[in-house]
């Protein structure tokens, strides 16, 4: 997603072999931010599965690492672990604002993620005094209207006689909107405890979001940084910014 913007910033300054699906933006264009946004929109279909000819990975689905949750005192404790989480929807981002500083290789974005849908596997353990409840199964859910601020900073690295642009890890910060979460087979499919627990989870979804947001921010940042650096490593700084 955001690395695609880097691609659109960088590749317009390459002398040749610019793919036909890349809209060229001129460095001295007074409306370069608008041009970059337009370029991203044209390239959006390519971002979903990746761009093999540029060695750029796809953004859909986004894989998250393990998410662990532990809440409550010893006598009323809830622990949960979620694995194999796949997130769909990042490529549907909306660029609300872009401020670029090509002289200092800095790009600041304000994005809106209208809807993210996820699925994975969970394991849950609830201990209330002498009563212990356990469950494992599938977890699905959606997040709506996530606001996302992204900061990209680059620096030059020397390789032989040439300089290359390398981006530092992207900083991604999410602000949560609405959420919906559903767990299957809670407590071995108990017809009372299962639905009741799902209601409690959704009524207190901020607890889960506090755990998943940092993981989502980190995963997005790592993916976007990798995508950007795969592109900029192929061209010298002079080629990208003559």
UniProtKB/TrEMBL annotation:
Classification via InterPro entries: Haemolymph_juvenile_hormone-bd (IPR010562), To_sf (IPR038606)
Keyword annotations: Biological rhythms, Signal
Signal peptide (UniProt feature, chain positions): 1-16
SMART domains per the UniProt record, alphabetical: JHBP
GO biological process: circadian rhythm
Coiled coil: none
This protein's GO CC annotations: extracellular space
One Pfam family it belongs to: JHBP
Entry keyword annotation includes Signal: yes
Keyword Secreted: no
Family assignment from sequence similarity: Belongs to the TO family.
Name of the protein: Takeout
Provenance organism: Parnassius mnemosyne
């Amino acid at each position: 997603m955001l690395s695609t913007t880097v691609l659109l910033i960088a590749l317009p300054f390459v002398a040749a072999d610019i793919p036909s699906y890349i809209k060229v933006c001129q460095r001295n264009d007074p409306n370069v931010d608008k041009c970059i946004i337009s370029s991203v929109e044209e390239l959006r279909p390519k971002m979903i599965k990746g761009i093999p000819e540029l060695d750029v990975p796809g953004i859909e689905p986004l894989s998250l690492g393990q998410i662990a949750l532990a809440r409550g005192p010893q006598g009323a404790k809830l622990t949960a672990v979620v694995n194999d989480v796949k997130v769909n929807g990042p490529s549907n981002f909306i660029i609300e604002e872009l401020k670029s500083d090509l002289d200092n290789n800095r790009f600041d974005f304000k994005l809106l993620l209208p809807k993210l849908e996820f699925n994975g596997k969970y394991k849950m353990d609830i201990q209330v005094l002498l009563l212990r409840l356990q469950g494992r199964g599938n977890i699905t859910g959606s997040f709506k209207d996530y606001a996302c601020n992204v900061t990209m900073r680059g620096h030059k690295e020397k390789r032989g006689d040439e300089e290359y642009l390398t981006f530092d890890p992207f900083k991604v910060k999410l602000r949560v909107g609405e959420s919906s979460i559903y767990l299957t087979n809670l407590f071995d499919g108990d017809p009372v405890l299962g639905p009741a627990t799902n209601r409690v989870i959704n009524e207190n979804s901020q607890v889960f979001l506090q755990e998943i947001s940092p993981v989502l921010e980190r995963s997005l940042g790592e993916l976007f940084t990798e995508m950007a650096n795969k592109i900029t490593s192929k061209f010298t700084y002079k080629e990208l910014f003559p």
